[in-house]
Amino acid sequence: MTDVRPGQLKVYLGAAPGAGKTCRMLDEGRRRAARGADVVVGLVECHRRPQTEAALAEARAGGLEVVERARCSYRGGEFTELDLDALLARRPQVALVDDLAHTNVPGEGRNPKRWQDVDRLLTAGIDVVTTVSIQHMESLKDVVEKITKVPQAETVPDDVVRRAHQIELVDAAPESLRRRMAHGNIHAPEKVDAALANYFRTGNLTALRQLALLWVADRVDEALQAYRFEHGIGGVWETRERVVVGLTGGPEGDTLVRRAARIADRSVGGELLAVHIARSDGLAAGTSHASLTRQRRLVEDLGGSYHSVVGDDIATALVDFARAENATQLVLGSSRRGRFERFLTGRGTGESVVEASGDIDVHTVTHERAGAGTLLPSRRRTLSGPRRVGGPVAGLLLPIVLTSLLDLDVAREHLNLTSVALLFLLAVVGVACIGGVLSAVVASVTASLLLNYWFMPPVGHFTLGDPNSMLALVVFAIVAATVAAVVDRSLRLSRRSARATAEAETMSSLAGTIVRGGQPIPALLERAREAFGVDAAELVEQPPDTADALVTAVPAGTDAYLVLRGRTLPSADRRVLAAFAAHVGAAVERARLAEAAAEVEPVKAADRMRTALLRAVGHDLRTPLAAALAAIGSLRSRDLDFSEQDREELLATADESMTKLNRLVDNLLDMSRLQAGALKLELRATALEEVLPTALDSLPVACPVDTGSLEEIPAVLADPPLLERVIANLVGNAARHTPYGEKVLVTASALAGRVELRVVDRGPGLPAADRDRVFEPFQRLGDTDNTTGLGLGLALSRGLAEAMDGTLTPEDTPGGGLTMVLSLPFAERVREVSGAPGSGVWHSEPL
Predict the structure, then answer these.
(1) Is the pLDDT of residue 292 over 70?
(2) Count of alpha carbons within 13 Å of 20, Cβ hemisphere only?
(3) Which of 428, 460, 704, 841 shows its CA 20 to 30 Å from the CA of 201?
(4) Which spans are transmembrane here (predicted)?
């Protein structure tokens, strides 16, 4: 029995539903059938979309066989799924299977996921053409939910799609998808408004489109890398700019990262990669881990990626990394070595990289440390005063004392020249441990002279009779100096490492103090007192008297100083102290800003309420008052003779106007009490179907309104009279801008714990520049003619909506016009029951 060749998978990937993936899949099936392939339609999900249904009907009419769905029952319901057994029995060359991420109805013998059905078909040697949307990729599940606020229950593992023989992107612009949605080509008409206002927002679709493009681009990049590897192509293919910047941990790294980022940004799709080459022994001279950490954050903030590679040959490791990443450009800093150092050490890393780079462009960027010499640690930082003095003294005295002991008869009888030389070498190493390399050189010279005079023939003279003895003495001196230098370097690195570890632990503890929150300034002061072992740490506005050596003060922001009392701090501690002071200064500034914000917030709240009141007085009171005055003035006129019918009409007008005035005054008084914190909002569960008719009846002129079904919409948390007034204002405003013969559409939808009421007009719309201006005071827009202008009365509506913990935002109506979206929370949520919004008085009782 011969092995069956696995089938090949082709995936049409789209950014969102409605992009046209299914139609493209059907077109692919018809093309393959026209070329003679045996193609069947395993399953197509039409979702009641007219264009998809038409494409399926056209495919069927063109001769494509459609496999009947398998019927199954689950929890009393009837469903249809892909008939996998029928497809396997039919064994076509190509099967079209829609919606790869679909979850199958549970049942005996069925796979949980459709992608598992597709895997069975591929194993049986059947080629499969399928579709999937980017939001169903497992790796992007959390990202998509964060963007759209909609959890994705159906996902497909990325590896399933990555294994596809061919992936084709079905791209559609967000505006095109919204037009298709508005025309009813994606969802049913009753779901169009909710979809446009939620999942199908322009920003959501743009983000999903970017995710799809980047995912496919990464897949293409993987295929390119695999091709280059299979064919042994080591050269750089400049398909897109990849800029690698080499970091040493020096202070120039920030400059290099920013320069490399600018180079990468010059081309579309440019990529920034930062790499630090760490030696395998961990002894990288001039490396600051604090600087590397800061530069890593900078790289990530600029959209790049940070990498760390181990290699003893820095130039080779850097070039190898760049070639492995298919980099097109390398950015390095100018050498920090001075002229004398370059003369002694020869060619540096930069020259080696340029020589080995080949077709990779190398940029050498100058910086403030270029040519200034490497920063060697000061001996005063690693050795105490007594050891700096005692080291050279020991280098003179210890060899002399050892010579006196070895000159004894007992020692001369049992020790040969080799043993004596090793004992002198041990003494030199001991001196190096005490006083460093300078003391070791003194000890080496002294030991060499004493060894020559007292123990090497001819004894008692500074001459060497045997050439081998002279060679041994020279080798001894070299070995002694080399070992002393290595020991001294090891000790210095150990001390620096211990110091760095202590500073890192201190800074980590400092960061933990800040992250834990609470009262940051007292906590930081207490941590500073403990870290530096002082008697007291305080924050003052004026610098103290620095004549006292036991007092240390450093600036901590504007008009603030961190003062430590109790002991004199060494210079090494002052660097860490400066970091403490910076954090304390930031905490002080945050405290000042929080205090200022707390003082301003009541003023802002009062100003917002006062503005709403003035707007209401400037518009809502003027119209009924003018009508009432005109009616009463006409009735009082003796020059006019009214009929009984005219008189009744004028009286009705006056009565209606005064009733409106009375209602408006009551509302304004309530808002005044709310501003003063004396009004208790009557927030309760409010059904929109109860408030909407009352709001429409309160309009001064009847207007044609088309209301969708509100029965299934959850109750909102609102004050019914205020909500009634907001809806009346929005509908009245929409009616003024709706062309004659058109209706104002009022619909509602529920999503993520909130209800969104949309009032849609088909008027001229609102330019983007006027989105904020529409809520400004009426006089700013001109109120000489209350039948014109944009958004009259909307300022009061937004103020009332915000008082009920809601929002009011304008959106474009698909096809032209303006949609005002009023968002209010569900009635089941915890509510604020007293005081003004944000007063902090909360009630935890469910409604």
Answers:
(1) yes
(2) 12
(3) 704
(4) 389-408, 420-450, 470-487
Give the Å distances, CA to CA, from 563 to 253, 547, 556, 557, 571.
33, 13, 10, 13, 16
Q: Containing H/E element for 14?
A: strand 9-14
Identify the residue whose tokens are 């520049």: 769
- The domain spans of the chain are 9-231, 242-365, 386-491, 521-584, 681-825
Q: Enumerate residues 6+ apart whose C-beta is below 8 A from 453.
A: 459, 460, 461, 462
Q: Is 230 left (phi over 0), alpha (psi -120 to 50) or beta?
A: alpha
In the CATH hierarchy, which top-level class contains the domain 681-825? alpha beta
**Cα–Cα distance for residue pair 5/165, rounded to 1 Å:** 14
Measured CA angle at 238 (ends 234, 241), to 5 deg: 120
**C-alpha 362: how far from its chain's center?**
31
Q: What Rg, from alpha-carbon coordinates, does the chain have?
A: 41
Contacts of 253 (CB under 8 A, 6+ apart): 247, 291, 292, 295, 333
Identical fold between 242-365 and 681-825: no
Secondary structure (3-state) at 799: helix
Over 80: is that where the pLDDT of 5 sits? yes
Give me the residues paired with residue 308 across strands: 276
Q: CA of 642: how far to CAs of 628, 636, 658, in Å? A: 17, 11, 21
pLDDT at 680: 63
CATH 3.40.50.620 fits 242-365, yes or no: yes
* SS3 label, residue 785: coil
Question: What does the pLDDT look like over 233-269, one tens digit per residue?
Answer: 655 555 567 899 988 877 788 888 988 888 887 765 6
Residues linked to residue 717 through DSSP beta bridges, in sequence order: 685
Q: How many of the other CB atoms lie within 10 Å of CB of 322? A: 26
Judged against a pLDDT cut of 50, whether residue 486 lies above it is answered with: yes
3 state DSSP class of 369: coil
474-483, 561-570, 780-789: range with highest mean pLDDT: 561-570
**Nearest-angstrom CA–CA distance, 492 and 768:** 65
Using alpha carbons, select from 812, 794, 821, 817 the residue that is nearest to residue 739: 817
Dihedral sign of CA atoms 253, 254, 256, 260 in order: positive
Q: Which residues contact 584 (CB under 8 A, 6 or more apart)?
A: 521, 524, 525, 528, 539, 556, 557, 560, 562
Question: Residue 189 has which token pair?
Answer: 């008409």
Q: Is the pLDDT of residue 499 over 50?
A: yes
- Rounded CA-CA distance 738/817 in Å is 8
d(CA 506, CA 503): 5
> Which residue type does 830 have?
V
Q: Are 797 and 763 in contact (CB under 8 A)?
A: no
Candidates 500, 631, 672; CA nearest to 576 is 500
Identify the sign of the CA torsion 351, 352, 358, 363: negative
**CA quadruple 336, 342, 345, 348: dihedral positive or negative?**
positive
Query: Averaged over 653-681, what is the pLDDT?
Result: 66
Instruction: Return d(Cα 779, Cα 790) in angstroms, integer.
Output: 12
Distance CA 444, CA 487 (A): 14
Higher pLDDT, 569 or 787: 569
Element of type H or E holding 755: strand 754-760
Can you give the pTM of this predicted structure? Answer: 0.40
Token pair in block for residue 147? 């963007």
- Nearest partner of 428 among 438, 443, 442, 417, judged by Cα: 443
CATH assignment of 9-231, given 3.90.1150.10, 3.40.50.300, 3.30.530.20, 2.40.10.270? Answer: 3.40.50.300
Helix%, strand%, coil% for the chain, nearest 5: 50, 15, 35
> Which of 671, 689, 696, 683 lies closest to 757, judged by CA?
689
User: Is residue 831 within 8 Å of 690, Cβ to Cβ?
Assistant: no
